[in-house]
Amino acid sequence: MTASFYREKTHRARKKHLCAACEKIIEPGEFYLRVAGIWEDGFGSFSYHPDCREWENHLNGFCHPEEWMPLHDLVSDSSGDALDGAPDRVKGRFKRRLGEQESAALREGGEHG
């Protein structure tokens, strides 16, 4: 999927933003990427931790060259395998989420404490 308009620029956050890749907060003072473009479904503008964006780009180019998937979906669909080789900071942002998924899977499987 190609964009008819695409812009990616680094900013220093003045307020909190939500990272589109890991769905964690980008705190004021942190550097982040603002990605904006027009795709098949219209205009979109997204904020990213730079290392999350880099890892999301890597995975989509390697695993999903025809269909873009957000990093949080790639991680959920792979039970965390998509984080193999990722920078430690990116892995850390997903640590709690993966623990919650494992707990939910245990509860759904009928195992009770």
Give short descriptive properties of this protein.
3 helices; first zn-finger domain of poly(adp-ribose) polymerase-1; three-stranded antiparallel beta sheet
Description:
- With 113 residues, the chain is an alpha+beta fold.
- The protein has a single domain, classed as first zn-finger domain of poly(adp-ribose) polymerase-1 (2-Layer Sandwich), CATH 3.30.1740.
- The protein is built from three helices and five strands; from the N terminus they run βββββααα.
- It has helices spanning 50-63, 71-77, 88-108, and strands at 5-12, 17-18, 25-26, 31-39, 42-48.
- It has a three-stranded antiparallel sheet with strand order 1-4-5.
- The radius of gyration is 16 Å and the shape is globular.
Task: Reconstruct the topology from this structure.
Layout: E1 5-12, E2 17-18, E3 25-26, E4 31-39, E5 42-48, H1 50-63, H2 71-77, H3 88-108
Antiparallel strand pairs: 1-4, 2-3, 4-5
Structural category: alpha+beta
Tally of separate helices: 3
Bulk shape = globular
Which spans of ≥5 residues are poorly predicted at pLDDT below 50? none
